[in-house]
């Protein structure tokens, strides 16, 4: 009888602890993370998403290269909460990173910039110890991106050649929205023309329509198009310039 009571007590303890453990990891996926080296802790401007300087500095340089989450470039710009699992060293929240590059490691889902990896630790000494491991066990979940003061912006990629070849990068996409398709309106033919995903977050079109260009975007999880409320790209667009699309998602 005494033994039976002990089992009952143990069972109650397990039942009390289990919900807390489930709550801790609710919505998270277990994985591993590493980091890459840069001279100043920020990201790299040469990432596979094609973001350039934006890919280095967005989110205060807390960015990451991803592999399984790449989704043929549709994963560019997605935001993730990442936290490591060593209770002695790791902070409770971890960090939030933006996917700006492609990178595959030793069973890792994230290869993080130094600024991002540093945030995994509870304090500077803990961060330094985590860095010595090189690769750490983590869990992650997708979270909404927030860019206060920004609408979706369109940047003219450096490979563009006015006026015929137009390549663009879509920046500051909020929420948990993947850009899945882009079209621009041909004012002469009165029709929408699709842009091709060249690579990463770069969309392009050969023989681009003339004049100010209205755009519409399609996002994951919805069938309708979201159209710019004005001509998002001026008729005399410039390579390297960025324009407010006035697209609200």
From TrEMBL:
This is Expansin-like B1. Keywords: Signal. One of its GO terms (biological process) is anatomical structure morphogenesis. CDD domains: DPBB_EXLB_N (cd22277). Residues 1-25 form the signal peptide. Belongs to the expansin family. Gene3D superfamilies: Expansin, cellulose-binding-like domain, RlpA-like domain. InterPro entries: Expan_Lol_pI, Expansin/allergen_DPBB_dom, Expansin_CBD, Expansin_CBD_sf, RlpA-like_DPBB, RlpA-like_sf. The keyword Signal applies. Residues 46-150 form the Expansin-like EG45 domain. Residues 164-245 form the Expansin-like CBD domain. It comes from the Eukaryota. Pfam families: DPBB_1 (PF03330), Expansin_C (PF01357). SMART domains: DPBB_1. The lineage of its organism: Eukaryota, Viridiplantae, Streptophyta, Embryophyta, Tracheophyta. It comes from Acacia crassicarpa (northern wattle). One of its GO terms (cellular component) is extracellular region.
């Amino acid at each position: 009888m005494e033994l039976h009571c002990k089992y009952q007590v143990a069972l109650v303890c397990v039942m009390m602890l289990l919900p807390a453990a489930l709550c801790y990891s609710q919505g998270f996926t277990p994985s591993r993370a590493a980091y890459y080296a840069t001279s100043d802790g920020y990201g790299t401007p040469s990432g596979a998403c094609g973001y350039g300087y934006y890919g280095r500095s967005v989110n205060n340089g807390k960015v990451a290269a991803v592999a399984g989450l790449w989704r043929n470039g549709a994963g560019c710009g997605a935001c993730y909460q990442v936290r490591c699992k060593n209770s002695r060293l790791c902070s409770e929240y971890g960090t939030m990173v933006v996917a700006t590059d492609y990178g595959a490691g030793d069973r890792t889902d994230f290869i993080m910039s130094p600024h991002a990896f540093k945030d995994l630790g509870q304090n500077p000494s803990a961060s330094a110890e985590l860095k010595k491991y090189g690769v750490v066990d983590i869990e992650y979940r997708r979270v909404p991106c927030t860019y206060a003061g920004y609408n979706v912006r369109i940047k003219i990629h450096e490979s563009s050649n006015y006026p015929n070849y137009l390549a663009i990068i879509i920046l500051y996409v909020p929420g948990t929205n993947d850009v899945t398709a882009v079209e621009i309106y041909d004012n002469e033919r009165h029709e929408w023309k699709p842009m091709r995903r060249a690579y990463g977050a770069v969309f392009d079109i050969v023989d681009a329509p003339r004049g100010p260009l209205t755009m519409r975007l399609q996002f994951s999880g919805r069938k309708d198009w979201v159209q710019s409320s004005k001509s998002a790209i001026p008729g005399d667009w410039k390579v390297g310039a960025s324009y407010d699309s006035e697209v609200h998602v």
